[in-house]
């Protein structure tokens, strides 16, 4: 059995397929949540539920990329276990501190949601259902520790198998509501399945790393180690996360503040949804080649690193290219269907969206690879110009566009921002190649 798992783990093709299947299930679950809740909840409760979903998205983002730091440090330790390797200065207690932080984040978020419901800011007739659903969704933060920890110790297949099972059961429990299953019972099933899946992942991570149970609660030791060695990395990771979240979401707010054109807001929402779908698929493919990439990096094997990096970039561009072709073929119909025919997208706007997706592919490869190598300070330097461009897109479009119609100018400027950001990341990837040979 171990030999089979090892062979599956070493196959980038199999890893890619498994991860894409998991991404597909994740997207289906997200769609099913909206599809089921809008049909079961009263209109007022559903509007409140959308606020809950928005807050949950922020809670997941508040992980601040800390699991990426643990991945990079644990990966180096795992690859350097041999006599001539360099295991670095990783200590298992670090994972206990991160585990405590993520639990605290979920607990704090739950208290905020409960307080918002009690105070009437989230008005609902089913408060317990909302709190339990928030916990189910927020547990995905904790699942990142199991996922990236097992990925660092060549346990991708183990986690993906657990996570596929967890998501499949959750999806079935959700769809069963449409056939008479109680919604509260469905959420409870999803909560239990999530706890069991994450618990199994943590146990497997402990066994593969040789951790002792007491090391999970040795917070003083782990916290002191973190403060001494990589507090700066944590600061850069937090700033990077805040910059990226703001950059990708800023047009929602600048459009709402500066324009009264509802079509422009719907257009950006469509761009955001397409970008997120493409970036999620690209992440799955990059994660599949990360074992070989990180191994080549820590061995200073520039040739192998460059080859795998080129493969990851080619696959990412292929995904973006397929999405662009699909968009050109059915984009208008998809846009009309999504927004109920309330607005239309022009051919030139579809063209700029295709440019954005192609640039996004290179940005994603750079961000995911550099994040896995704990290069947060360089990533922050590439993110800040993107943040500035994103914030300035709408004000510039107001000056460049025709009276009453700023959508075309917005898309052209936003596309140019993505192209410029992609060029910055290409320079960063070339620098990575040179450092891999040093």
Automatic annotation (TrEMBL):
This is Polysaccharide biosynthesis protein. It comes from the Bacteria. The chain crosses the membrane at residues 12-37, 49-71, 97-122, 128-145, 157-181, 187-205, 309-330, 350-371, 407-429. Keywords: Membrane, Transmembrane, Transmembrane helix.
């Amino acid at each position: 059995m171990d030999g089979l798992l090892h062979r599956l783990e070493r196959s980038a093709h199999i890893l890619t397929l498994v991860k894409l299947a998991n991404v597909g299930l994740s997207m289906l679950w997200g769609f099913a949540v909206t599809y089921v809740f809008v049909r079961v909840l009263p209109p007022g409760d559903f509007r409140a539920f959308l606020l809950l979903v928005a807050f949950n998205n922020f809670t997941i983002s508040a992980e601040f990329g800390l699991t990426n730091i643990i991945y990079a440090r644990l990966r180096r330790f795992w690859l350097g276990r041999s006599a001539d390797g360099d295991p670095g200065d990783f200590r298992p207690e670090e994972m206990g501190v991160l585990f405590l932080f993520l639990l605290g984040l979920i607990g704090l978020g739950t208290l905020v949601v409960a307080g918002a419901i009690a105070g009437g800011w989230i008005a609902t007739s089913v408060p317990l259902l909302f709190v339990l659903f928030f916990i189910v969704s927020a547990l995905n933060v904790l699942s990142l520790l199991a996922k990236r920890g097992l990925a660092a110790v060549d346990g991708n297949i183990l986690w993906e198998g657990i996570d596929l099972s967890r998501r499949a059961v959750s999806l079935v429990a959700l769809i069963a509501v449409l056939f008479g299953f109680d919604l509260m019972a469905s959420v409870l099933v999803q909560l239990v399945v999530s706890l069991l899946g994450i618990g199994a992942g943590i146990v497997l991570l402990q066994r593969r790393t040789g951790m002792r149970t007491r090391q999970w609660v040795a917070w003083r030791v782990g916290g002191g180690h973190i403060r001494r060695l990589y507090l700066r990395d944590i600061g850069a990771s937090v700033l990077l996360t805040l910059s990226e979240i703001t950059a990708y979401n800023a047009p929602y707010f600048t459009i709402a503040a500066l324009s009264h054109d509802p079509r422009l807001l719907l257009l950006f929402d469509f761009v955001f949804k397409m970008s997120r779908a493409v970036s999620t698929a690209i992440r799955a493919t990059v994660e599949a080649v990360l074992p070989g990439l990180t191994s080549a990096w820590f061995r200073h094997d520039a040739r192998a690193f460059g080859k795998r990096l080129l493969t990851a970039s080619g696959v990412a561009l292929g995904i973006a290219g397929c999405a662009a072709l699909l968009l050109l073929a059915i984009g208008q119909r998809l846009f009309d269907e999504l927004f109920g025919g309330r607005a239309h997208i022009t051919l030139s706007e579809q063209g700029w969206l295709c440019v954005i997706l192609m640039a996004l592919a290179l940005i994603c490869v750079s961000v995911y690879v550099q994040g896995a190598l704990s290069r947060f300070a360089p990533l922050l330097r590439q993110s800040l110009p993107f943040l500035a461009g994103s914030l300035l897109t709408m004000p510039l479009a107001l000056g460049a566009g025709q009276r009453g119609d700023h959508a075309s100018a917005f898309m052209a400027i936003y596309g140019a921002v993505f192209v410029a950001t992609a060029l910055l990341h290409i320079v960063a990837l070339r620098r990575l190649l040179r450092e891999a040979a040093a």
